[in-house]
Structures are given as C-alpha cells and as structure tokens.
Here is the input.
Amino acid sequence: MLREYKDVMAEAITLRNVTKVFELPCERQTSLKAAVLSFRRPSARRLVALDDVTLSMGHGETVAIIGRNGSGKSTLLRIICRVYRQTEGAVEVDGRMSTLLDLGAGIEPELTGRENVYFNGAIMGLTAREIQAKFDRIVSFAELDKFIDAPAKTYSNGMLLRLGFSVAIETDPDILLVDEVLAVGDAAFQQKCYNRIREFQRSGRTIVVVTHNLDIVKDIATRAVWLDGGRVRVDGAPTDVVHEYLKAARVDQEEKLN
Amino acid sequence: MLAEIKELLRYNELIKQLVKRDLKIRYKNSVLGFFWSLLNPLIQVATITIVVKYILGLEIANYSAYLLAAYLPWAFFQMALLDSSQILITHRDLLRKVYFPREALPLSAVLSNLVHFVLALVVFFAYIIFYIHLILHGSGILLTALWLPLLIVLQSLLIIGLACAVSCLNVFYEDTKYILAVLLNVLFYLTPVMYPAELIRAWLQKWSISEFYKPIIYKMYLMLPMNALTDAYRKTMLPVTSLRLRGTEVEAMPLDYVTLAGAGTICVLIAIAGYAFFNKRKWIFAERV
Here is the structure.
C-alpha cells in the first residue's frame, strides 16, 4: 500500500543507477618503496559492490535491507550517509540524517559519557545548544544516569550501544540509518529501541536498517529490499521478501549438498 | 571550494569538540598537565642557549628570549605537522563510519597546537616583562608586537595548507610521516631559529658571486615562509641591539615588511593549494585508511 502513494510524496532517499566499484590492489601499496619498485600500476582487482542500484525510499517508510554477507548492504548504507562516494549514479537525500553504523563509532574512550554525548552530537552536525537541549532525554533513554561522568572506556558493549543509539535517535533526525548493531543490546533495551522506533515511524520519519534478523524485518519494517551481488533482487512487502529470501537460501543449501 | 568551507563551518561544533578532546586527553593522566608542554621547549632552549651562546660564541643580548621568540613558533609548526600527519589514520573508525567534513581532522590538529602556542606565548610575555624588563632592566616587548595576530594567522594558514597535504599523503603512503620527521629535523637547522637570519646574510657576503645577486638571494631566502615568520616574530617582539659572532660584529637588519608581505602571500597560496589537494581526495579516505 505504501508503494502506491509513495510517488506522491517527496522522496526521503533517492538512488539513481548507483554503482560502487572498489579497487582492491592485490598488495596494498601503502609504502613509497613498494610504489616505486612496481613501476606499473598494480593489477587492481575490481570489486563491484553495488551494480546499478535504483531505489527510492519515501518519508515515513521503514526499509529493511537484507541479503547475504558481501551483498552490498553496508556499502549501500555508507553511500546513503555519504561515507563512501558512488562510482556512478546519483544519490539524493532530503532531511537530516543520523547514522549508527557501528558500536562506539564516534565514541572517544578517554572522554566521559557526558563529553561523549556532546562529541557524538557534534559529529552528527549538531550545535552545542541543540545537544544541550536534548541532553537529558539522551541520557535517560540510554539509562546511563549513574555512569554519565565515567570515562567511556569503562563502558560495556551494551552501554556503548545504548549511548550511540540514544544520541542517534534522540537528536530528532528525519532519517535514521542503522547497521546491524541492535543485536548487542539485552532484550529489555532491544524492546525499548523497537518501541522508540515505532514512535519514530509514526511521526513520519524514515528508517533504513540493515539486519540479518528476519524477525525484526517482519516486525518493524514496512518494506524490505533484498540485495544480492550488489543488485536489488526483490523489493516489496517484508513478509514476501523474507519468504523469497529464505526459499532461495534453502535452494542454495540443497544445491551445495548435492 | 567555497561550498566546502561553508559545509566545514556548519560543523564548527565538531571542530571545537575535537580540539577540546585533544587538549583534555593529552594531559589527562599526567600530574603536571600543561606544564609538560612548557617544559619540553624550556629544556630545549636551555640546551641550545648553552651550545650557541657559550660554546659557539654568538653574542646577543638576552639570547634565551631571542631564541624563544623563534623557537615557540617553530615548535607550533613542527608539532602541528607531526600531529596532523597521523590524524586521519588514528581516526580510521570515524572516517569509515560517520560522515563529516574530513578537513575537520587536520584542522583540529592544527588548532589544538595553536592553543598551546598561544598559551606558551603568554608565558613568554610574562617572562620578558617580569624577568628581563623588571629584574634585569632589559627591554620589554616592542609595540610592533601588535603585528603578532597577523603573523599567527599567516603561520596558521601555512600550517593548515601543509597539514592538509601531509595528512592526505599519509593515507596513501605511510612513509610520509617518516619523511616529514626527517625533513622537519633538517629544516630546524636551516631555519633561522637558533641563529639570526643576519648570519645567513653575512655568510652570503663571503660568496664569490656578483654583488648584484646577493640581496636578491637574501630576499628569496627571507621569502620562504618559515624563515620569514621566525624572523618576523623575533623582530616584531624584541629589539636587537647588537649581534656579535666570536667578537666580530654582524650587521643587524630591521624587519623587511615588503619581503614579509611576499612570504605572507605564499602562506595564503599554500593554504589554498593544500586544501584543494586534500579536497580532491578526501572522499576516498574511508576506503583507504
């Protein structure tokens, strides 16, 4: 149903014919000596991580990206959030993005939790005042009140996740990009995250999540995209896509066994 | 380039946070904190003073002040470049996982060293005023020290340009940081830090080339940014009464503002070139670090 009125809305994320090629030199030339010794360019292996992907995600959609390892999910996410630049094609994003690509990305171990909230917020492009205004909500959502003045290096993985997720979502982005990180949290926090994500969905915001947890896909996504070898294989309702995906996985397994 | 600068300014809070973090972490686990950053130059200066003044016989009134006036800017140059050569590699995680204007990293390395430099200058001023002026009744700080902000801006631009280039090169060739360390070591002796620029001029007089070229060569020498800057820091802050090398008088020259303007222009050009070089490559960093 979402697919039908999607065209009327301005898109939150548009990818047009996006291709990403990584040049993987067989031996990485990071020293001058190596570069001088091999006069000609090293025979670079080209890896096509994304192959002519055209996708658009509307405001209010929650899109789950699924696919096997190496299918280009993370590359896609990194291209949307501009960490990587596409080799070809165009990417347009409408609205402010928050990203949570990894546990503890942008968390400085020597700084306290409090300092890290400001540091992390600044990385996302917020001003000190904006962070100040959201500080209490961030800390209480992360359940870190007691530890907020302890250095982040003393934090557990779960605490790092809570801090990262909390800053990402409580800073009110229009678009939230999450790479498989929620798995680290305990059941209670995961539940809390999903509740918050649902609230976020209801306010018309866009979420793109990369995950291997197919239950989550069926549970929270409004749409799923199955990437296979850098191409979109199936794009549609989560239950259908997951069904196709599992069927293909079974067929693969059987082929291997035979 | 203007659009890039605008985007960078939008992330000014990030630059502030990076500098703050740098200053916090650097001395977090040390008892003497900031004083370590003063102790190192002081020990250097004491050693150089003993060697140059007493062993080599260069006679300049208040040599240690004369040396510090050039040594502190040199230390800023050296530390900022060494720090920025590593800054992209040490922020690998951030580069690979978050979008932000990449130049914020080398810029923050330069700015946090700038903070140290300015604090060191404050201590230096206190030293001149309380010790040399009030106790030894030597001269204080000259009024031309009002040029200082301009010199600091020019030097910062120079360093930012070089820091951009060096940090970027180091992503592709990690030899850069070693080459840089060697070059800085050599450059320390070639730049008039331990000795006045006038000694180069006196040496030039002895060359067997046409008299016509000598002032031109000296001007070109003074046009090199760090030569110009160390010379200018010294001459705007401190008066030079007389220079004597092992009993022989060396002619002291006033600050040549025209040449300094030329050097300043070079600083600006280096800043623009370094930034452009960086910008052209900055979106590959995430794939290469």
In short: Chain B touches chain A at residues 10-11, 13-14, 16-18, 21, 24-25, 28, 93-100, 172-175, 179, 283-284, 286-287 (CB under 8 Å). Residues 2-288 of chain B form one domain.
